[in-house]
Design brief:
Layout (H helix, E strand, L loop, with lengths): L2 E5 L2 E3 L5 E8 L7 E7 L6 E7 L4 E3 L7 E6 L4 E6 L8 E9 L1 E4 L3 E5 L2
Parallel strand pairs: 2-11
Antiparallel strand pairs: 1-3, 3-8, 4-5, 4-9, 5-6, 7-8, 9-10, 9-11
């Protein structure tokens, strides 16, 4: 059974930075995809960034140039470095793993406000 544990959310002022982490536990072999989605109040969950095991990344347009996704394969951990945060980035951020099935973390709140 795969489990995802997120950390790093919080309250930050506009223009600030946060780093989210997501550690995957359980037996995983072979290729997989890890990444981040977010859901703001009253909106659908949307992709922020994903990273494939071969290194290819996909970013939402809103994240390009400000967010960076990275991964430590030895630790089965994915990171999301978020810079130049804006109030519209406020959402619950969910870690995502595709390994045969879809797996989701419990979510971590990111609030960007002065």
């Amino acid at each position: 059974q795969v489990q995802l544990v997120e950390s790093g959310g919080g309250l930050v002022q506009p223009g600030g930075s946060l780093r989210l982490s997501c550690a995957a536990s359980g037996s995983m072999f072979g290729t997989n995809v890890m990444g981040w989605y977010r859901q703001a109040p009253g909106k659908q969950r949307e992709l922020v960034a994903v990273l494939r095991s071969g290194g290819r990344t996909t970013y939402a347009e809103s994240a390009k140039g400000r967010f960076t996704i990275s991964r430590d394969n030895a630790k089965n951990t994915v990171y999301l470095q978020m810079n130049s945060l804006k109030p519209e980035d406020t959402a619950v951020y969910y870690c995502y793993l595709l390994y045969i099935y879809d797996y989701w973390g419990q979510g971590t709140q990111v609030t960007v406000s002065s």
